[in-house]
Structure to design on (105 residues):
């Protein structure tokens, strides 16, 4: 991936968007399947699955960002891509809603 710096510029943002869609799909599926009512200790199964999914998404994004920025120069397009990827990883903070928001309406 580091061979094409333009791809590196968008890789993590595309991953972020895919992760966002994945979270919505897991949440909708979990609500439909009743996972929000099944408890594991003091936490619902749905919330636990969403937390694990969020953690996996963040790890994948960090891995993508690291892979695309390995050969980044000081002022190259790859370096700009690395900074943009860092912004995408920070944007995953919006995923933390799975910790406190209501799961199903």
């Amino acid at each position: 991936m580091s061979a094409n710096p333009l791809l590196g510029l968008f890789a993590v943002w595309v991953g972020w968007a895919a992760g966002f869609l994945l979270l919505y799909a897991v949440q909708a599926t979990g609500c439909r399947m009743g996972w929000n009512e099944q408890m594991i200790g003091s936490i619902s199964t749905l919330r636990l699955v969403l937390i694990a999914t969020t953690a996996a998404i963040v790890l994948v994004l960090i891995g993508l960002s690291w892979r695309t920025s390995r050969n980044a120069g000081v002022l190259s397009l790859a370096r700009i891509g690395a900074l943009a990827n860092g912004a995408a990883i920070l944007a995953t903070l919006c995923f933390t809603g799975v910790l406190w928001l209501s799961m199903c309406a």
